[in-house]
Amino acid sequence: MDQLQAEVDRNYDWFQRNLKTFLVDHDGDYAVLRGEAVQGFYQSPGEALRTALAQFPDRIFSIQQVVDEPLDLGFLSLAVD
What we know:
The protein is α+β, with helices and mostly antiparallel strands. The chain has one domain. It has helices at residues 3-26, 45-55, 75-78, and strands spanning 30-33, 38-42, 62-65. The chain has a three-stranded antiparallel sheet. A hairpin with a 4-residue loop joins strand 1 (30-33) and strand 2.
């Protein structure tokens, strides 16, 4: 498994375990994840992506929407390669 996919998988597992906490204040927002931690919450996927690309030029991050059920965000949920 490559580094990017391993990061995405770890982030997703961690995000799902902590989702109930995030829903309290960030329902519907988009979370930028890296290193099994939220780096920031944003109101749109575009804002999350632009910020993540600026912060992490190695492109090793993932983005998840804070919603009560799994949502397939296409390439955003798999991170940007």
